[in-house]
Amino acid sequence: MNNKVILLASGGLDSTTMAYWLLDKGIDFIPLFIKYGQHCVDTELETLKSVLPKTHIDKIEIIDISSVYKYSNSKFINEANLWEEEITADDLYIPYRNILILTLAASFAQSLKINEVYSAFINSNHAKEIDCSKEFFSRMEMMLGEYGAIKIKMPFLEMTKFEVAQIGINVKAPIGKTFSCQASSEIPCGACPNCVDRLEALNNL
Average pLDDT in the 63-87 region? Predict the structure, then answer.
């Protein structure tokens, strides 16, 4: 398996674009889906299966760490009633989520003797979490590279969502079918940081 890479995949616009971008560059990958207790997990997984190239649907690997956040008050874990509750970006924060996701992916890759993990994280202007910043991701890349054999690749890190969407169009990724809402488990709310970024990008295409 070491001729492949691991791709953190969620069914969102960024990771879906990266899947097709990797194949366009002749890089094969294993899609890795992390269940961390997100209320939209079923929608994310079904979306992932619908947007991945057909050749890779059966290659999806799933890791379940949902018990880590079973006591979390985050509205990304415990779905809010959007008719009655006013949700802010702070309500969606999940502590150390991205650290967990990246280290899990690195550990999984190393067990398969795979040397590279690809992540489609970008330095969002709307994300409030400290572990969504360019500085954080750069330090994680460096740390995992220095203390292990795994290289974390984030080719989209300095791009905007619009630039990623443009790449998605160029590599024929089905970005219109993607899902990445933080506040609603089925129908995108249109107001959370993920939805705002996605809608702005698609509207500007």
Answer: 87
Tokens of 136: 């954080």
Phi, psi of 87 (to 5 degrees): -110, 135
- In order of 37, 113, 130, 148, 159, the CA distances from 48 in angstroms are 17, 25, 26, 29, 22
CA-to-CA distance for 7 and 25, rounded, in angstroms?
A: 14
Q: Is the pLDDT of residue 43 over 70?
A: yes
Question: Nearest Cα to 116, choosing from 197, 29, 202, 9?
Answer: 29
Q: What's the chain's Rg over C-alpha atoms?
A: 16
Separation CA 192–CA 184 (nearest Å):
9
pLDDT in tens, 126-142: 445 556 666 777 777 77
Q: What is the pTM of this model?
A: 0.89
d(CA 95, CA 159): 24
For tokens 């997984």, name the residue.
45
Nearest to 12 by CA among 33, 29, 30: 33
CA 143 to chain centre: 20
- The values of phi and psi at residue 8, to 5°, are -70, 115
Sign of CA dihedral 166, 169, 173, 179: positive
Consecutive H or E run containing 49: helix 41-51
Q: Which amino acid is at 164?
A: V
